[in-house]
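Troubleshooting log. The previous structure file for this entry was overwritten by mistake, so regenerating from the original sequence record. Sequence copied from the archived sheet and checked twice against the printout by T.R.
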Amino acid sequence: MKQRLQKLIAAAGLASRRKAEGWIADGRVTVNGQVAELGVQADPERDRILVDGRPLPPAEEPVCVLLYKPVGYVTSRRDPQGRPVVTELLGKVRARLFPIGRLDLNTEGLLLLTNDGDLAWRLSHPSHEVSKTYLVRLQGSLSPQARQQLENGVQLEDGLTASAKVARVRQAGSHTWLELSIHEGRNRQVRRMCEAVGCPVSRLKRIRYAFLDLGGLRPGQHRRLSRDEVARLKDL
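Regenerated output below.
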């Protein structure tokens, strides 16, 4: 049965649908010897589909893993600079998992990885507004004006952010701790928002993703999501 190429690539666990679309647009995918274009459909049982010259692997059983990402790991399957990557922490998980969104090198906390391209697309699409909550330590104090800016939206170089939720603000010496919830996924967004209101981040940890939290996991540990949890994520 024919399906869109990006869906087949995602089902094989190589990348999310969005990333697969980029591969197709870059000419990295061929069908029966012809460079594919966006919108092309193929049947994996009848057509020869190559990604970067390699045959498309068969579809995998859908898997979703919740990982406590430590500081110092790159949110990727491989890193050209040779830095440690999050997939090295998955131990005996055999599926070819890719991260849903990113946490930067110096950010720790809850990261989801999956080979389910449909799930990754649902959670990453801005229209679904999936909430992500971070524990943030700021240098200095958070003024009422800065808090209001975070809650109303901050003007960044790539546009105005959506409103955020600020909670549990407390002062600890020369630092301020707070919980910040957003539903966008821009690059280094929390750090950039805080810097824009004059409060640089000195520590950042994602503690919740929708209804999921870290539970009793320690840095570097992971667990596989249950079918019910995956179903709830898809219902978001």
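The chain has six helices and 17 strands. Archived copy saved in two places this time.
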